[in-house]
Amino acid sequence: MDEKKSASLHRLMLERQKGGTITGIREVISFDEKEILLNTEEGKLDIKGEALHVKHLDLESGEISLEGRIDSLSYPGRKKDKKEESLLKRLFR
Questions:
Q1: How far apart are CA 82 and CA 93, in angstroms?
Q2: How many domains are contained in the chain?
Q3: Domain range holding 12?
Q4: What is the structure's pLDDT at 17?
Q5: Taking Cα atoms as reference points, which of 41, 34, 49, 33 lies closest to residue 12?
Q6: pTM of the prediction?
Q7: For position 84, which CATH number holds?
Q8: Edge-first strand listing for the sheet containing 11-14
Q9: DSSP characters for 30-90?
Q10: Nearest to residue 5, comparing CAs of 60, 43, 45?
Q11: Counting Cβ atoms within 10 Å, is residue 72 exposed (0-12), middle (13-18) or buried (19+)?
Q12: DSSP three-state, residue 12
């Protein structure tokens, strides 16, 4: 069973902004028609849009299928690499 969990990859496939499939899901934190917040193998994933619906959810395999208009996908709280930070931010820490 541990082998199955560790082999779970986080993938995101968006289909014309009208839905998609995401793998590597650990849990669904919250959802409504405008926002879905997931905990994934890569951290929290925030999905925003309109008329969002969960078509299929299988936490055992870590997969979710969504439909609705997807406007944005973001990973809130994800730390940036030092290379991505500006020189001024690094100087004035």
A1: 12
A2: 1
A3: 2-91
A4: 80
A5: 41
A6: 0.73
A7: 2.60.40.2000
A8: 11-14, 19-23, 63-74, 43-58, 35-40, 25-31
A9: EE-SSEEEEEETTEEEEEEEEEEEEEEEETTTTEEEEEEEEEEEE-TTPPPPGGGS-HHHH
A10: 60
A11: exposed
A12: strand
Angle, CA of 63, 64 and 69, to the nearest 5°: 150
CA dist., res. 45 & res. 74, Å (int): 6
Query: What values do phi and psi take at 75, rounded to 5?
Result: -110, 85
Dig out the tokens for 49 from the structure.
Answer: 């849009």
State the residue for tokens 């028609």: 33
Counting Cα atoms < 13 Å in the Cβ hemisphere of 27 gives 2
Q: pLDDT digit of tens for each residue in the chain (93 aa)?
A: 444 444 468 899 998 888 899 999 999 999 999 999 999 998 999 999 999 999 999 989 999 999 999 999 999 876 655 555 666 666 676
Q: Give the amino acid at 75.
A: Y
